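Please complete every field before forwarding. Incomplete forms are returned to the sender.

SECTION A: IDENTIFIERS
Entry label: holo-228
Bound molecule: S-adenosylmethionine
Molecule representation: SMILES string

SECTION B: INPUTS
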Amino acid sequence: MRESHLAERMDDPHCDLGELNRTYAQFGTVNGLVAGWRRVYRQDLRPHLSASRPNTLLDIGCGGGDVPRALARWAARDGFTLRITAIDADARAIAFAQAQPPVSGLHFRRAMSGDLVREGQRFDLVTSNHLLHHLTGSELRALLGDCEALSAGLVVHSDLQRSPLAYLGFRVGVAPLFRGSFIGEDGLRSIRRSFTTAELRKLAPPGWTVRTLVPFRNLLIYGASDRD
Ligand SMILES: C[S@@+](CC[C@H](N)C(=O)[O-])C[C@H]1O[C@@H](n2cnc3c(N)ncnc32)[C@H](O)[C@@H]1O
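SECTION C: PREDICTED COMPLEX
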């Protein structure tokens, strides 16, 4: 069963700032190893980008900002204009992200998805990475409602998929590589907090679909057309 009561060290407002900043810094490597965003960019996001006008993307719960940075780099390399707004509820994450070298078209901001809904904002693409497992069932429903309001095209939430093999694989193959941060401990707790594919399918409102990605990932998608 999902252990959503487990707290992650990085969510503690009083946690060690040095370790937290190392956690944000190491997210880039972890995500490169396990998250598969290059594949998601090529298969799901890039087909929605227009070459003839600027495109917009919102990344929710951006942490240290490595995923929106990668998306900005890939889109620029492919010749697209992509304006990215990356938001996080935690001021410490935004401070870390803003302290990194600036990327053209990428803007970080402390906000929740509901703040942008109230402002009437809309984006061609909405993404998140490792956000869903942070949420309770009712928070997840609220987030998905916000995403429907914010989306003018496609929403892709990518998250861990809970399974004993994912837990073992992370404990043996990934956690020992990261020292001086919360990656190991929080990663294992995140897997225990995350949804199985069946749980996510059950929670997905009409219009949303769940796809799996190797290794041990769930993609919760809204707005995909037949060509996807
Ligand atoms: C595990 S981190 C993932 C960070 C980043 N997306 C990555 O994969 O490296 C989850 C982030 O989501 C943020 N978060 C959690 N709930 C949020 C919400 N409702 N709105 C915005 N950010 C949220 C947390 O502050 C945290 O920085």
